[in-house]
Fold this protein.
Amino acid sequence: MDRKAAEIGALEKENETQQDQEEQVVNPWEVSAKEGGKIDYDKLIDKFGCQRLDPSLIDRVERLTSRRAHIFLRRGVFFAHRDFNDILDAFERGEKFYLYTGRGPSSEALHLGHLIPFMFTQYLQEVFKVPLVIQLTDDEKFLWKNLTVEECRRLARENAKDIIACGFDIRRTFIFSDFDYVGGAFYRNMVEISKRVTCNQVVGIFGFIGEDHIGKYSFPPVQAAPSFPSSFPHLFSGKDNLRCLIPCAIDQDPYFRMTRDVAPRIGYHKPALIESLFFPALQGETGKMSASDPNSAIYVTDSEKDIKNKINKYAFSGGQDSIEKHRQLGANLEVDIPIKYLSFFLEDDAELEHTKKEYGAGRMLTGEVKQRLIEVLTKLVERHRRARAAVTDEMVDAFMAVRPLPNMFN
Amino acid sequence: MGFSKEQFLARLQELQIEFSQYEHPVVMTVEDQAKYVGNSEGGLSKNLFLKDKKNRFYIVSALADTKVDLKVLSQRLGLGKGGLRMAPEEALGEVLQVPLGSVTPFALVNDSARNVSLLLDQGFKGQEHCLFHPLSNDMTISLNVCELDKFLRSIGRDSSYVDLEANPPVGKDNPPDLAALVPSDSIVLPDLPEKAASLQAPPKAHVVSDNKSTDTTAKATEPSRKVKNVKDKPVNSVQPSSSFKDVGQFVEEILDKTSALLLSEITEESIKQHGQQLGVVVSNCIRERLASELKTDTTLYMQTAYTEGFHVARKMFQSTDTHHQFRCL
C-alpha cells in the first residue's frame, strides 16, 4: 500500500505540472470540481491511493463496539480510509489507539460542514473509549490569512467552545492550540519529520511556489506531529507503540500521506485515516461550503427563521419546474440538496428511504422535503446552541490544560 | 454593592493617584457639565454605555469633540452594521451601578462591570488632563491619562486606546480591527422589561428546547422559570444553565422532560390503539426520543463538574506563598 501511495505521490507531481482547469482540485486550501460538475470521489480515491470503506468494515465496527454504526458510516459520509482495518485488528487484540483531529480556526462562524468531523469523532471516542487530541491550527491561519496572531489565538479559543459543545469526554480529551503548545517533545517530532521531507515533495503535495513565504513551507510538520504519541509526553509517555486514527475530511489527505511516508523512517506506526466527503453547499454540489458566503451554509448561530429562510430560498432543488411535470417525472435525487442534507442528518433510515422513493417518483413535493429538513436541522442547531451556552471559559481552560488523563482507556 | 463616590475617591487616594476634584450641581449632559468645569484645563469627556445584540456591554469614553459613529464602531468590532445601541437604563444600575448621567470609565471598579469592555479615545493621550465623573454626576475629577491607566491597571484592566474617528474598511480580507475588544461573556440582566423585546434573557437562564412535547409540562411545574420562547429569535445570549451544577435541578429537568413525553404519549387514542402494550410502546418511545438529549445534558453536567474540580486543584497547588495552606495528607 505504501509503495502504491509513493507511486501515486510521484505521479501527482507530474499531474500538478500539467494540470489544466479541466481537473478537479482537492487540497487543504482549495476544493473545486471540474467545470460545472460535482466532485468525483472515485477518481479522488484512485488518485490519492486510499481505500473505500466497504460495508463489511461497517459491520465489523458494529460487532466490535456492540452499538449501531453512526449515521455517517451508514450513509457513506465517511467513505474512505487508510489502514482502518489495522486499527480494528489491533483493537480486537486488546490494543488501544488514540484519536487525532483538528480545526483551522479562521472564523468565528462555524457551519454544519465544520461540525461533521467533530460529530463523528465524538461517536468514535464514545464507542471505542479512547483518548482524543484536538489540534487548533491557529498558526496555520496566521500564515495563510490576513489575521493577527492575537486574533488567531482568540478565534482558536472561541472555536474550542463550539468543538466542546459536540460533547467530547473531558476526561479523555486534550485540546491544544499550536501557538500555546508547540515546543518540547512536540517540536522535537516536528523537526524529525521536517528532516525527512524535501522541498520538492511539499511542492508536489501542496503546490507551494517559490514566492510563498517560508512559514507555509514549514507548516506541514506541525499538522503531522500529533500523529505520533511521543508528541504528547504528558499523555502517552512510554507508549510509543500506540496507534493513531485520524478522522478528517478528504482534503486533508495530503498532510497525512506525507506523514505516513515519514512514520516508518522515525520508528512509529503510520497513522490510520478515516475520511469524509464534503458537505455540499446549499446552492449545490460544485464544491464545499464557504465561511465567507453566509447563504452557502447553515451556521450553528442561525435562528429557526434563518434556517427556514435559507433552506427555502437557497437550497438547490432537484424537483421539476411545475407541479404537473414533477408529478410526472419525479425529482432528480442526484442533484437535490435537501435530500442530500437529509441523508446526512435524518436518523431514521426507513423515513429517508420512503422520502427518497416518494420524492423521486413525484408523489412528494420539494416543499415537503424542505419542511422536514428544516425541522431536522433546527433541532440539531438548537441542541448545539444549548450545549454551547453551557461551555465556560473555565471549561475551555480545563480542556486545554496540559494535564494527565488517567483512565483514558477505560 | 457598588462603590460609592466617597469609597471610590478614597481608593484613588490609596493608589496615590493624582487628581483634582470639582463639585457642582447634578449635570445630565456634557454641555451642562462644561458650564461648571469647562474652563479648567482639561479635555471634557463624553461617555457612552452601549450594548450589542448578544447582551455584551461596552463603555466608549471619548473627548467631547470626537465624532463617534456607532455604525462604524459596530462594524469595527465585528458586530455587523447595526450591532451597537445605547444600553437600557436598567443596565446602568445593574451593570455599572452608577446613576443616570454618570457613565464613566471608573465604573469598571465595580465587579458587576467586569465583563464590560472599555474603549478609550486615543485623543485623551494628547491632553494634559481629562475630565470624568467619579461614579456620580455631581462631581467631576480631572486627571492625567497616565493616572487613568494606573487606576485601570490596579483593577486588572488594560487601557485600550482607539482612534474612534477612524473608518477602516471591514470585509473578507480586512477583519474587524477592534474585534479583540468584544467581551467574551455576555451579561444577563434579571427581569428585563418588554421594551428590550428581541432578546429576552430568562432569569434562571433555562433554555427550553424546541421539543414540542416538553414545552407545556416544563412550564407548568416550574412557574419561577419565566422562559419566553420568543419566536424566530431564540435567545443566543443565554448564560450556562445552572442545572449543570445543581443535582436537584438537573434531576428535576430530566423528570420534567420524561413525564412531559409520557403524558403526551398517553392519550385516548393511543390507549385504544395499544391497549395493554401501551406501557412498552411509551417506554420505547421515551428511550428513543430522549436518549440523545439526556446524553448531551449529562455530558455537560460531567464536564462542568470536572472543570470545577480542575480549577480547585489548580488553585491548591498554584500559590506557594500561602505557606502550604492546602495540603494533600
Summary: Chain A touches chain B through 34 residues (CB under 8 Å). The first strand of chain A starts at residue 25 and ends at 27. The mean pLDDT of chain A is 90.
